[in-house]
Amino acid sequence: MHASTSASTPVAAHSKAPRSLRWRVVDIVVAAVLGVAIGLVFWAWNTIGGTWFVAMDGLTPGLGGIAVGIWLIGGVIGGLVIRKPGAALLVEVIAALVSMLIGNVWGVSTLFSGIVQGLGAELVFAIFLYRRFTLPVAMLAGVGAAVGAWVFELFYGSSPNILKTVEFNVIYLVSLAVSGALLAGLVGWLAVRGLAATGALNRFAVGREARREV
User: Does this UniProt record's set of keywords contain Transmembrane helix (predicted)?
Assistant: First the structure.
């Protein structure tokens, strides 16, 4: 009886141990793979989203922000999958870099955008201490990325948005936030859940959660 009790103690202690936030090799590899894959999505969205942006902005200046959400999804997915400090930022930056290297009309500003958008999503995951990865948190991370994009565009470029009207900037901020919550947050959360259901993320907490729900 004594031997059995002693043997079970380390297991019990281990089960209550705090989750490590240290990066593993598999975390780095998966972050890179996700970044490249999402970068290809960004590149494809450059035409679709760009056209949609112009069309919506033509209807109401600032409303084009509703098309931006897909470009914010990297940070959300990176944070939801890897769940470590810096994951949201790293995946968004890699995705932005891939999109830039393949070729787009925005050039190096794509990388700068990726940094601030990734930081916006990262801040939300940090607020929850990298312990909550629910749909509401994912949507908030999308909004965080959107706010980062809004602040960046407010000051960056030959014609920064700070030179435009208050009405434009308010409409643009609201449009970005809605797009970030839905196209980055909701779509990102569904994408991660779908990927986890295939077993591809079994080495991550989100994959283990998916197995328990089956």
Answer: yes
